[in-house]
Amino acid sequence: MYERSRAEMVEKYVIEQGVEDPRIIKAMLKIPRHEFVDQALAHQAYKGKSLPIAGGQTISHPTTVAWMTDLLELGGEERILEIGTGSGYQAAVLAEIGVKVFSIERLPELARRTQTLLERLGYYSVGIKIGDGTVGWNAHAPYDRIIVTAASPGVPENLFNQLKESGRMIIPVGEKSQQKLLIITKENNQVHILGDYNRSFVPLIGKEGWTL
Ligand code: SAM
After folding, report:
1. pLDDT-based confidence at 200, cuts 50/70/90?
2. Is 152 designated active site?
3. Whose C-alpha lies nearest to ligand 1, atom 27?
4. Ligand 1, atom 2: nearest CA belongs to which residue?
């Protein structure tokens, strides 16, 4: 179902936007994105849009997902911490590449719904925890990569501490309305910013994020 729309989405919003990694292309050609949104929005799932999901949240734009995945520079064997599970689409893309994903979502109902969906689709390599992702998931630390899919006022210290030395974190940092997507690496326990891009995300709510 929707194969043609999916191929058009990948052509226009992944390949034409400069993402060339065949693993990301293959994953996004395969994953049924329409399953990650409400049935009423299924016909819009392959457009170049972020769409509303439960809890007033959003599934990220397909270009954002492809691009953030690309920026992680994955070998394929990494252990990744994702903050902001949301619909689970980003986690599914990572799982298709073969990495182990630990994902945290603060909204319990959304987290449960996504867990059920990911299990139904066979993504057993994604572990989901309900809670405040700004404090990380210490039990499985350190992580090779950390991807934060909501906007933060700064780089949460707990997340930086749970990143491996030479590990990489992709995180939108800035004001609530506008942020820079930062690519960070950890060298000698110091933050090194490798690059930044203007982007806009929903707020990260939590101890080291924004207050409600
Ligand atoms: N990765 C998601 C996807 O593929 O659909 C997109 C997620 S959406 C842009 C951001 C998510 O971050 C929302 O589901 C929101 O509830 C969640 N969030 C916000 N603050 C959080 C926090 N402190 N810890 C965990 N999740 C948080």
Report:
1. confident
2. no
3. 84
4. 86
From 61, 202, 210, the mutation candidate for ligand 1 (largest count of ligand atoms within 8 A of CB) is: 202
- What value does the mean pLDDT take over residues 82-93? 98
Prediction pTM value: 0.96
Give the domains, in start order, of the chain with CATH numbers: 3-199 (3.40.50.150)
**Residue in the block written with tokens 């939590």:** 206
Q: Which residues have C-beta atoms less than 6 Å from ligand 1?
A: 55, 57-60, 83-84, 86-87, 89-90, 104-107, 110, 132-134, 149-150, 201-202, 204-206, 209
- Confidence at 21, pLDDT banded by 50, 70, 90: very high
